[in-house]
């Protein structure tokens, strides 16, 4: 049932492993993908992003935005207004994650449903046993 398992050689397995490690290195942590999702509806200021994510601290948000900027997923724009206005927006390249985000969303919904169903079944069985 595993994806393409029958075609794996040691070399292709290592290449796959390295590619996944590279992807996880860039998207590591619990905030990178939610941050990208929060900006999909257009440019946002720092405080707007923080509010949309909820429990992220300013220090962590700043670090995550810098990482996303270094990896070409986000552009930081500074406007010479008084006071200075700074916005963050997704790059065109960030769209390369759309399939990944959609698959993770779909899998997450399926997984949550599986756990909820499993817990309901366990609760029913406990009721029957008692």
- Mean pLDDT, as a whole number? 90
Low-confidence spans: none
Domain module count:
1
Shape: flat
Give an account of the 3D structure.
By secondary structure, the protein is mainly α. The chain has one domain: Winged helix-like DNA-binding domain superfamily/Winged helix DNA-binding domain (Arc Repressor Mutant, subunit A, Orthogonal Bundle), CATH 1.10.10. Helices cover 59% and strands 11% of the residues. The chain is built from five helices and three strands, in the order H-H-E-H-H-E-E-H. It has a three-stranded antiparallel beta sheet. A hairpin with a 5-residue loop joins strand 2 and strand 3. The longest helix is centred in the last third of the chain and has 32 residues, at 98-129.
Strand-helix topology:
Layout: H1 10-26, H2 32-38, E1 44-45, H3 46-53, H4 58-70, E2 74-79, E3 85-90, H5 98-129
Antiparallel strand pairs: 1-3, 2-3
